[in-house]
Amino acid sequence: MKRKPTKKAEKAAPAADRSKKKKRLGSFELRPTTFIFLTAAGIINAFGVTLFLFPVRLYDSGISGLSMLLDQVTPSGWTLSMFLLLLNIPIFVFGFKKQGLAFTVYSIYTVAVYSLASFLIMNVLPIDVSFISPLAGSDLLLCAIFGGVISGIGSGLTIRFGGAIDGLDVLSVVFAKKIGISIGTFAMIFNTLLYTACGITIRSWILPLYSIVTYYIGSRTVDFVVEGIDSSKCAMIVTTKADRISSCLSENFGSSGTIVNAIGGYSKERKEIIYFVVNHFQINKLRKLVHDIDPSAFISLQDVSDIIRKRES
Fold first, then answer.
1. Strands (E), the chain
2. pTM for the whole thing?
3. Hey, which of 89, 100, 143, 234 has its CA 20 to 30 A from 12?
């Protein structure tokens, strides 16, 4: 005989449903400062694309580059700004369940700012972007370099504050694992196909090749903005004198490390591993301090893109 749910169970069910829904949507807190930075990111990206790349027919990467190509091959009524919205927004909505509410809102907002700023620069403001760059003339190398750097700053700021300015980031996350390749490889394949299509369409390979320079410089700029100039290193120190070394490092750097017990794979000797984070200016000092105490200590360094600490209540 099937039992009728109790009143307590009936009350608990909606609460559980709300909990699942909240978990699926992700926590989202409206922060005005975040939107200020995302607004700046969209404007900066538009500045780099419309004043350096678009006038000389260089192509950005990802969906932005595809929008630039479509702007050239479609009737005059269709503009870059329209393609940015029409192509990016459905992709971000498609990736909503995987990326979460905050990422989707931030991304769509930044793309909207990017699109609006592009429209204002190209169609409203008294700036001629028809034939040559207003700032770099017809010098393709200058346009490729500065276009890549400036648009990379805009993209990097967007990522740093929790969003993305190009739908390719979402497509890479969603589909790369399904087809068995890395996210970076997926993006590279997409951009290779994009630049190949650009070369075939305009019947010239000069501009697509310069666009690869833009893509490379832009991606390096994104890494720089996201990780920062003061990127950290995680030192893994294998030693038999962990207590002395840990005390010395704490005294000299003003921070503590983590000690983990270990056993040598060949010698079976009991050792300890110290995990200690420093910036790249402190590496030589760390090496000297460690080897002064234990000359046989083994030090391995790994890049650390970010350090997340517990937020104080």
1. 232-239, 258-263, 270-279, 298-304
2. 0.74
3. 100
